[in-house]
């Protein structure tokens, strides 16, 4: 398999201005190293037969045609024509055979991609017509992206493309990127730019971590005060039209949008509008709503013993389901720190009545089961972080469990990711792997090496039904059963 290595050089510079200074990073690319040849596809296709025989393209009359009436293909044809020729000043090479047309054959027009979408395609570059064949529009999109990477402009400012045969399909069905818009609000245009970058790299899932402790930017019609009181500001929110714009932009690029509404932890922003939704912590041992900051804040985790809690979840998640058409909803469920629950006498009385004793895993299980029942009654499938499974909770065999912990974060606190993933896989859960690719843990130097050296199948386990990544860095992945 061919390798592709990028080398970045970072220069830290200080620019003095009046009373302060600005520190910035300048990136010099490329430096000495292994550089991909012009026209190399990315990610590496499953099968790639490349030739040194060159053809040319005349940007003035090159045609992109397709055999299915579909808004996805109409938008793709315009988008890629602009990418290829809109800002380029290249011309055809007069002494080479010419490629005049890209002919796309695909299956029927599907409205939205899903976890089972077939993204395979076959691409053949020869004089006259380039043939792109796929059984779905989603495969056609991936092949069209590959074609755009094969075409290049040489030092003579001439368009060139090599004779090429590619047969490609992804190793894994789910190739995702998570953006956290709660800790750091991202403008809609920034999210759209990220979706473009995902399409260029053939990612197909936008995992939208939309709310958290810090802010609640999702504008709810059922609970308008959640964003009014929980967002960073009145303009730092996502309206219904914003969400529709993002979903449509993603759909046209073959990208699913899966929102995450994390509970029972990571919910402080909810409590600014719905105070009873959160458990009052007894930090001083006597008074509700008091903190013990070595263990917990005043209010920081959902109150699992109130019926009103589940009324809020049902009403809000029903609205979320209407806004987001994907079949999956991410329920979070990570880092449910129990110190606040343990400080609350009403929680402890409830646990005694239920026969839970002092076993907070049973209380967590109680909460999870009620939320899962609510969501499944909406005909929605579930993804959640692996923390409840680590704690011994049962979350239903049709739940996809996402592994994030790894010793790289803190070797004194965490184990290597394999030791979290293997127990999940052995229990029969479909699994997402995120542990290797946390981009908020970036250091100076060749960080990229450890990103690319992570092999998701580097573990010993039972039948793995699905392993995938949720990260910016993706290798040529395949669907595999052991």
From TrEMBL:
Pfam family name, one: Glyco_hydro_20
GO molecular function: beta-N-acetylhexosaminidase activity
GO BP: carbohydrate metabolic process; ganglioside catabolic process; glycosaminoglycan metabolic process
Active site residues according to the UniProt entry: 335 (proton donor)
Catalytic activities: Hydrolysis of terminal non-reducing N-acetyl-D-hexosamine residues in N-acetyl-beta-D-hexosaminides
Protein known as: Beta-hexosaminidase
A Gene Ontology term for the protein's cellular component: membrane
EC number: 3.2.1.52
Signal sequence segment: 1-20
Ranges of residues in domain Beta-hexosaminidase eukaryotic type N-terminal: 41-150
UniProt keyword terms in alphabetical order: Glycoprotein, Glycosidase, Hydrolase, Signal
Gene3D superfamilies the UniProt entry points to: Chitobiase/beta-hexosaminidase domain 2-like, Glycosidases
Family in the record: Belongs to the glycosyl hydrolase 20 family.
Protein biosynthesis keyword on record: no
Domain Glycoside hydrolase family 20 catalytic: 172-446
Superkingdom of the source species: Eukaryota
């Amino acid at each position: 398999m061919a390798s592709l290595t990028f080398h970045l050089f970072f220069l830290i510079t200080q620019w003095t201005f009046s009373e302060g200074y600005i520190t910035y990073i300048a990136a010099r690319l490329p430096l000495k190293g292994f550089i991909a040849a012009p026209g190399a596809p990315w990610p590496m296709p499953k099968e790639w037969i490349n030739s040194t025989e060159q053809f040319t393209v005349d940007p003035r009359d090159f045609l992109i045609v397709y055999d299915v009436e579909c808004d996805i293909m109409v938008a793709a044809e315009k988008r890629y024509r602009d990418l290829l020729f809109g800002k380029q000043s290249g011309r055809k090479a007069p002494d080479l055979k010419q490629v005049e047309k890209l002919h796309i054959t695909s299956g029927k027009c599907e409205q939205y991609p899903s976890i089972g979408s077939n993204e395979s395609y076959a691409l053949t570059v020869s004089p006259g017509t380039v043939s792109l064949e796929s059984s779905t529009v989603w495969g056609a999109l991936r092949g069209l992206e590959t074609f755009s990477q094969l075409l290049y402009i040489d030092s003579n400012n001439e368009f060139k493309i090599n004779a090429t045969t590619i047969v490609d399909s992804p190793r894994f069905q789910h190739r995702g990127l998570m953006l956290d818009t709660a800790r750091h609000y991202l403008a809609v245009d920034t999210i759209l730019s990220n979706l473009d970058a995902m399409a260029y790299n053939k990612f197909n899932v936008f995992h939208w971590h939309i709310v958290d402790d810090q802010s609640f930017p999702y504008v709810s019609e059922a609970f308008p005060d959640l964003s009014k009181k929980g967002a960073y500001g009145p303009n730092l929110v996502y309206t219904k039209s914003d969400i529709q714009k993002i979903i449509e932009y993603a759909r046209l690029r073959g990208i699913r949008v899966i929102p995450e509404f994390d509970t029972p932890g990571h919910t402080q922003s909810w409590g600014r509008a719905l105070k009873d939704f959160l458990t009052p912590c007894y930090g001083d041992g006597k008074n509700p709503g008091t903190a013990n900051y070595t263990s917990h804040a005043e209010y920081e985790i959902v109150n699992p013993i109130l019926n009103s809690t589940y009324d809020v979840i049902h009403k809000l998640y029903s609205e979320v389901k209407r806004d987001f058409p994907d079949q999956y909803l991410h329920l979070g469920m990570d880092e449910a720190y129990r110190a606040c629950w343990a400080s609350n006498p009403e929680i402890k009385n409830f646990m005694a009545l239920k026969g839970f004793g002092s076993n907070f895993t049973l209380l967590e299980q109680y909460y999870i089961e009620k939320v899962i029942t609510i969501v499944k009654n909406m005909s929605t499938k579930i993804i959640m972080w692996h923390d409840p499974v680590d704690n011994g909770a049962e979350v239903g065999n049709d739940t996809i469990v996402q592994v994030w912990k790894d010793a790289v974060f803190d070797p004194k606190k965490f184990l290597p990711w394999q030791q979290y993933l293997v127990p999940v896989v052995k229990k029969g859960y479909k699994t997402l792997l995120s542990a290797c690719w946390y981009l908020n843990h970036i250091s100076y130097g060749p960080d990229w090496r450890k990103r690319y050296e992570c092999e998701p199948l580097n573990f010993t386990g039972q039948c793995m039904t699905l392993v995938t990544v949720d990260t910016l860095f993706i290798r040529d992945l395949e669907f595999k059963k052991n």
